[in-house]
Every structure is written in structure tokens, then in C-alpha cells.
Amino acid sequence: MTMMDSSLWRAPVYLAQAALTIARTERLPEAAGPRAGVAGEGAPLRLLVLGDSSAAGVGVEHQDAALLGQMLAHLALHRRVAWELQARSGITTARAQVFLREVGPCDVAVLALGVNDVLRQTRAARFAAAQAALLRRLRERHGAGVILASAVPPLGLFPAFPEPWRSHLGRRASLLDATLREVCAEEGALHVPFDMQPRAELLARDGFHPGAPLYAEWGKRMAGLALQALS
To answer: How far apart, in whole angstroms, are the C-alpha atoms of residue 97 and residue 165?
Structure first.
């Protein structure tokens, strides 16, 4: 049996497990708090965070503990940061471009996209085209000099998903992340690997979204990379 034949044979199992997981998993809200503001003192820095539920802070109660807030905790020590958050649970890379319609210029753009492309079975070629278009638009229309693209998380390691669906998602996530690395290299963006083991204590209670410890590490890393790129 070929890999394609195996995938087709298992498709009903994946669909059944996906439906059951969605039904059983608690739907956590996006983090509360403002979506734009200014923080810190020093040379001006315009920051955009764009993405899906992880960018929106699902898994923690307030934006202070989410990706944006943890980035600001470090960036505001060095820069006067005018920041904006454009994020919504469930969006794919293609859908994210709609959120740029109301966005002004930015110096640094941080992206957290790809999980929903995995879950919705977006083909690698379509994912690559959407990512390339997004990166080009950020550079050409919004002036982003630094673009940090978070890796597609290794969904095969997340405890929220049962087998064999988990392994299937893991393979799809690995494929799209490899695609993302290639697009970033071609478009001059920095691909930021996900190299933290998604242990239960790092995750939210749904076993899927980041918890406060993971957001803290992620935000610190992205802030450090942004400052390094700007220096």
C-alpha cells in the first residue's frame, strides 16, 4: 500500500477524530486587552503582530501575558514602540491579507500563521503562494524592514490530538513549515523555528494553545531577534 493509498484509507478516521476532538475541546477566548498602543521610551519602533489564535493570545486571559505583551515587556526597555495587533482565531495565511487593509506602516512585522492551513488541508503550493504574497505586501505596501515568521508548530507532538490524526497533522505541519522556510529565504524574511517541546505545563488547558510560560519564551525570543535585526 502506498502512502497516498494509506492516506485515502485513513481519511474517514481523520474526519471522525477531528470532529470528536473539536466537539470535546474547550473553546478558549482570545486574550482581553487593547489591540493598539504605544509603550516605552527611546528611538521609535513600529511593530505589527499578525496572525491566528496564538497571535490573538488564546490560552491566557490578557494580552500582557500573550505574545504581544511579552514582546513589549522586552522591546519597551529599549524603544518607544507603537504597536498594533491584527489577529483572529481560525484564520489561514490567505485570509490574513484581509487584515492588512487597515494597517499602516511598520518597521517590524511578526507573523504567527500556518496552523489553520494545516487543519484545513491547504496544499503546499497554495500555502507558499499565500505566504509569498503576504511577505511582499508587508515589504512593499507597509515598509516592513524586518519580518519574523514563526514556524508552523509541530502538531504531531501536541497532546490534544488523538492518533492516527496526530501523526497525519504532524506530517502536514512539517511539510508546510519546510515550505515556509523556503519562502522566507526567497523573500528575505526570518523563519523562527519552533524548538520547544510542547509539554503540558507549557500549554493552555486545551492542550493545544500556548500557555503563559510558552508565550513568555516566544515573546522574549521574538523581541530579541527584532532588536538584533534592527541594530
So the answer is: 29
